[in-house]
Amino acid sequence: MTMNLRRIALSTFFTLLSLILRAEQVAPAEGLRSSGKIYVVVGVILIILAGLVIYLITLDRKIKRLERRINPCDLR
To answer: How far apart are the first and last CA of the chain?
Structure first.
């Protein structure tokens, strides 16, 4: 994984984590928290984010493979 992609992924993760933690302090979240549904919402968000990260990693690998195939003499 390139360093740029790693930085973007980490900054996105921590930004969303802070938003989720801040969202739990809002009064409408009390209903979700009391019924236990807040954990379902957080779980779904984490699953979606994990899927996006996995997709980006595989896409990055495929692009690198194609770049190597196009320019075999160009070593980076």
So the answer is: 14
- Which residues have CB under 8 Å from 44's CB, separation 6+? none
| Amino acid identity at 13 | F
What is the token pair recorded at 22? 């801040």
pLDDT in tens, 12-40: 887 877 777 765 555 666 766 677 788 88
Determine how many CB atoms are found less than 10 A away from the CB of residue 15.
10
pTM score: 0.53
From CA 10, how far away is CA 7, in angstroms rounded?
A: 5
**Can you list the pairs that 46-49 forms with residues at least 24 positions away whose Cβ atoms lie under 8 Å?**
49/12, 49/13, 49/16
